[in-house]
Amino acid sequence: MINIRKMNLEQSGMLAQIDRSEYIRKIYRQTANGLEEENAGHDCASWDESSLRKLEQRFQEELRSGGAGFGAFEGERLVGFAVLAHQFRGPNRDRLQLDLMYVTRSHRRQGLGRRLMDEVKKEAVRRGARYLYISSTETDSAVNFYRSSGSEPVESVDKELFALEPEDIHMIIELDKNETKLPGAGFGGDDIEKQ
Fold first, then answer.
1. What pairs with residue 12 in β-bridges?
2. 192: part of which helix (H) or strand (E)?
3. Is the distance from CB of 82 to CB of 116 less than 8 angstroms?
4. Among 44, 62, 70, 174, whose Cα sits 20 to 30 Å from the Cα of 96?
5. What's the predicted TM-score (pTM) here?
6. pLDDT tens digits for the chain (195 residues)?
């Protein structure tokens, strides 16, 4: 059984349990004409020590600043996680960013990404956001996942986020206020949803 629970700062060391490796068939580039697809055909390894430390630091900084972390746990093992950033963005300050999201390789294509995304959406709506902003890695698996979750390329990228990761595909999802009525919304304890 996999439980989705809120994460805390002390759990940042658990991120090392995630195997982010994948074979990348295609990548996307964001151009004035929309998304353009390119063949890639290479492996992406899991995190090296330096990358893992940066990931843990980013996770900790976001949670310390008021962001929210959600983990998919199989027993006590972390098999996926997502982080909603705290800072409102956009011209109307009505967008929150999906800052991080990973599902370990052995657990992909089993609905965990969707379950984590649902929790992030509910939390964003609870905080008053109208949109979820996504700065996605350019891989076909990531972009296609976010598109299947309702996102579309943004018309105008967030300049700060673009400067940090110019190769990313910048997308947005309009949030439905009914997101808070999905199963697991308004939880009272640590467990949000069980399957």
1. none
2. strand 191-194
3. yes
4. 44
5. 0.86
6. 899 999 999 999 999 999 999 998 998 888 877 888 889 888 888 889 999 999 999 999 999 999 999 999 999 999 999 999 999 999 999 999 999 999 999 999 999 999 999 999 999 999 999 999 999 888 888 998 999 899 888 888 888 898 888 888 899 999 986 655 544 444 334 444 444
